[in-house]
């Protein structure tokens, strides 16, 4: 019988030991994992609990910026000329719409005019941050607002609310000086980045507006204020479900800017221009305050707040009378005979005796040319006083080179030309008054050396405000103010205060660098222009305000060189002369100065500019309590103004230029060669 097979273990505990080792390893790893997990939980729940609680809260709540109310712009008496008003609007939130195109189609049935701007609306919606409402239309009527709310359930992502919109209550009266507001664009963002500054997040808000042009642009940072914000609770998709009132922050309104302008004077100035084109500036000669700064024709700045339609903007920009151009600061014109006061001061500075007489026979021969006076028959013997009163061109032709073009330019700078002024707004042109150095620099790239040489014959045109003399309406007002003040070189001031902080007065300046007696000679000439029966603007300068009288000076600026085929009396607007008038009043105690430019206004200097300046001056004086009290005093019989003479109005334009050889004129004091290079006008404009 065979033996049974058997298994013999050398170590009965070997299997049991192997099991225990594996159990120990796995248990150790489990324990380490548990300890690590416990430690991490402790770190998250104990040591970093506050940090992650904050992050979780931020995921639950969003802080949405709210544009602040823009600061107001007021006139000197506190009248609001740029403010804010309630406005109904409709908005679209892209992320809450099922189909943006379908939503805009439905909205277009309720608000048909949104269809015309569909492309720009889609562009704005796509550029906006997620869940940010984008204005589709502002200034809804009550009917439109009710209609949108009635169909709100059928328009997911569309809402209607009320906000504040910029408003200009006087429409176009202040459009150029105030400017307007508009949405920030890519150029604005890029300009900030190029300056190395951080772009404020509020600029990305679809409802935010920044200043464009004028005071709105120059003081944009003061007018903006500080943005507030609403802390809202959102769901996982970012939709607003509630507002955290305690976490919201109110917006801080912008600062108020007070101007020196007077709303009544400003409105009257634009009114008297009617359909004409030009500019008007009124200054207080005592402190430089600008009471009026009007450019005509104007435009309604309210059109630009919500975005002006392209066809409207194109119509404004293409119109030949340029309503978008600020003609008070950025438009330059030949001053014509209004420049003769500057020339007179230069002549006096050269030592010329103001009583010296020049015989005007209607023309002045210089070399082979005859420069015509506006009065064909001549003025006869003229001293400086009568030459200013009668605006005699021949007198100034004859005396021009006694002063010289360099002295005339130097005098022009001292009286207010060839410069811009720190009035708070830019976009000013300095204009030009030529000199020998000016011409050499201006023609520095011309290969012809004669083009850089100044010829004495060119000085004749400069003396009467033609040729290369170009000025702005503001500069003419400054010149008139300094002559009327006769002591201080007053500078204009437009900004009265910002945020309640007063700006410096324009009277805190140096004295004028002219002898008082020289200024008095010029002033007396201006007084005669408006108050002597034979003055060029007598009938147009009578204020009819008691014993208050106005002094002035007419001017007509030729805009092109005429020949017999182009009459200066053409009905074509662009061929007519510019018409100018400057004045101050009262003559016995000067207080206000006015400068009026009527672009292509007509023939004589008194026909368009003077009547408008008179009406603006009347309004200015009537707004002054002291002047009003003086006007209301009984007028003594001896102070009554004489009746205006009958007959042809002084300063009428000559019909056509006359050949130089046909008009006899006195020879210049010293023989001179015929002028070369750029030739001055043969025909002097009427005054």
Automatic annotation (TrEMBL):
Keywords from the UniProt entry? Carboxypeptidase, Cell inner membrane, Cell membrane, Cell shape, Cell wall biogenesis/degradation, Hydrolase, Membrane, Peptidoglycan synthesis, Protease, Transmembrane, Transmembrane helix
Using the UniProt record, give the first listed, main subcellular location. Answer: membrane
Entry's Gene Ontology molecular function annotations: penicillin binding; peptidoglycan L,D-transpeptidase activity; serine-type D-Ala-D-Ala carboxypeptidase activity
Q: Which Pfam families match?
A: PBP_dimer, Transpeptidase
UniProt superkingdom: Bacteria
Compositional bias per record (Low complexity), positions renumbered to this chain: 640-674
Q: Which GO terms describe its cellular component?
A: plasma membrane
Which residue ranges does the record assign to the Penicillin-binding protein dimerisation domain?
66-243
What ranges does the record give for the region Disordered, renumbered to this chain? 635-687
**Record-annotated Penicillin-binding protein transpeptidase domain positions:** 278-617
* Gene Ontology biological process terms in this record: cell wall organization; peptidoglycan biosynthetic process; proteolysis; regulation of cell shape
Kindly indicate whether the keyword Hydrolase belongs to this entry.
Answer: yes
Which residue intervals are annotated with compositional bias (Pro residues) in the record? 675-687
Q: Where in the cell is it found?
A: Cell membrane; Membrane
The reply on keyword RNA-binding is no
How does this protein lie in the membrane? Answer: Single-pass membrane protein
Q: What is this protein called?
A: Penicillin-binding protein 2
